[in-house]
Design goal:
Blueprint: H1 22-25, H2 29-48, H3 55-67, E1 75-77, H4 79-90, E2 92-95, E3 98-102, E4 109-114, H5 119-123, E5 130-134, E6 137-138, H6 144-151, E7 158-164, E8 172-177, E9 179-182, E10 186-187, E11 190-191, E12 197-198, E13 207-212, H7 219-232, E14 237-241, H8 250-257, E15 265-270, E16 277-280, E17 292-296, H9 303-313, E18 317-321, E19 329-336, E20 341-351, H10 384-397, H11 413-451
Parallel strand pairs: 13-14, 14-17, 17-18
Antiparallel strand pairs: 1-20, 2-9, 3-4, 4-5, 5-6, 5-7, 7-8, 10-13, 11-12, 15-16, 15-20, 19-20
């Protein structure tokens, strides 16, 4: 799970007037001797090792060696990895806007789906197209990484791809100008006729369904927009799907949780070198009038666990699915070397409103307390075959196709549990309201009799 849960506590930076390293500013004998040992070792390797060594690679290896003594979520982000890391956090990059995979039958690049509104979509790229050329060069033997290197890049630059549509061998060459692609993190159940996500489940129950794939800096705004649409459509209940969401920004998890609870603690953090801090919900713009269910699975981690644990502890939503990943630590991203690289360092642990930390430590056993566990009767662990079937089902429904999602006999076990519960809840609420309405005439008649 490499997507970082960045703390909004701030970026820890070691700065001094002379910009000298911290050990030089505070020359305690122990630190000085340790750094002297390191410098001597570095010099001996560089000068006398049997083969030439790259100084930068040697230093990066030393940094990585230190981090191996820490937890698995602390790591060094090299200059080569920094751009990809930032893209994964921001969900934004320069490209043409398509999802690609390798077709196992032809071993060629195939378009899974164009993204609505992107240059590829506007140029006529369709789901199922085979990409046979990029910039005039054959894509035979290409990996997905090879394709990404050519398709992604600075915006404003034209990339020409050659595709064959399904059922045709004719190569159609499409010049496409790259743009900044903002990956949506809030998705619906399927695309509608306007090439946009449909957030209401099929049927007459008016149950909203929102998938949150990451917690990026736009996730809360995207979610608010989806909720506004659902309210306009008469939403009566809501399912928030956090399955396989690896996490992201702590600030976004807090802001989203605050949309659904109007008071109480959302999350708190504790660190060795930072004061304990907690975030509380505010009453403004809170949605409390619709029943909720949250879906999680074994790959829901970090910010996903903060959100689901918060809603569970406040009894705002039932949690359905599998026990979550168990990541209860907060990482700060610290720029290094003039922001050419970065250090992702665990600086605190987070605690759910109940006060528990859900972290799964290396020695943790199945019977230990860790992760977010679904509510009673809503724990449903999927087999590996069911996981594969669900992935294929979801992938098919995520394709932007004029014919709509394909027919399937597969039923999503977690979604079914959530829908059944919400339908029953809505029925109970309607029965209670009807009963209350029936009692009103009786009470009026009784009051009239008393007055007589």
């Amino acid at each position: 799970m490499h997507v970082v849960l960045r703390s909004i506590l701030g970026i820890a930076m070691f700065l001094g007037a002379s910009h000298a390293p911290v050990w030089a500013q505070t020359p305690r004998p122990d630190n000085y001797e340790l750094m002297k040992l390191f410098a001597e070792t570095f010099e001996q390797i560089e000068r006398n090792y049997v083969n030439d060594v790259d100084r930068e690679e040697l230093m990066q290896a030393a940094i990585q060696g230190m981090l191996q003594k820490l937890d698995r979520y602390s790591n060094y982000i090299s200059p080569e990895e920094l751009q990809a890391f930032n893209e994964s956090v921001e969900q934004e990059f320069g490209g043409i806007g398509i999802q690609v995979d390798i077709d196992p039958r032809s071993n060629r690049l195939i378009v899974i789906s164009p993204m609505p509104g992107t240059p590829a979509y506007k140029s006529g790229v369709k789901a199922g197209d085979t990409i046979v050329e990029i910039e005039g060069a054959s894509t035979e033997g290409f990996s997905i990484r090879d394709a990404q290197k050519l398709l992604k890049g600075p915006p404003g630059v034209t990339v020409t791809i050659g595709v064959t549509h399904q059922g045709s061998d004719e190569i159609v060459r499409l010049p496409i100008v790259r743009e900044i692609i903002q990956m949506k993190t809030v998705l619906g159940d399927r695309y509608n006729g306007q090439a946009d996500w449909e957030f209401l489940l099929e049927g007459e129950q008016k149950i909203g369904y929102i998938r949150l794939t990451h917690f990026s800096n736009r996730s809360a705004d995207e979610l608010i927009a989806a909720l506004t649409r659902l309210k306009e459509q008469g939403m009566k209940a809501l399912i928030l799907d956090l399955r396989s969401n690896p996490g992201g920004l702590l600030s976004q998890a807090i802001e989203i949780a605050d949309l659904f609870i109007d008071e109480g603690v959302i999350v708190s953090t504790k660190g060795r070198n930072s004061p304990e801090r907690s975030w509380n919900a505010a009453k403004d713009n809170t949605i409390t009038d619709v029943p909720m269910a949250v879906l999680i699975n074994r790959y829901s981690a970090s910010a996903s666990e903060i959100l689901s644990a918060c809603l569970q502890d406040h009894k705002r939503a039932i949690v359905v699915g599998e026990r979550s990943w168990g990541k209860g630590s907060v990482q700060n991203v610290i720029p290094l070397d003039g922001e050419k690289s970065a250090l992702k360092l665990t600086t605190a642990s987070y605690h759910r409103p109940s006060g528990k930390n859900i972290h799964r430590f290396a020695e943790a056993k199945e019977e230990d307390v860790w992760g977010v566990v679904p509510d009673d009767k809503f724990l449903r662990k999927l087999t590996n075959d069911e996981m594969r079937a669900y992935a294929e089902y979801r992938r098919a429904r995520d394709v932007l196709d004029d014919d709509g999602p394909p027919e399937t006999e597969f039923k999503d076990p977690h979604l079914t549990l959530a829908v059944d519960h919400l339908v029953a809840t809505l029925g109970s609420t309607a029965d209670e309201k009807a009963g209350a309405d029936d009692e009103k005439p009786k009470k009026v008649a009784e009051e009239d009799q008393k007055q007589e």
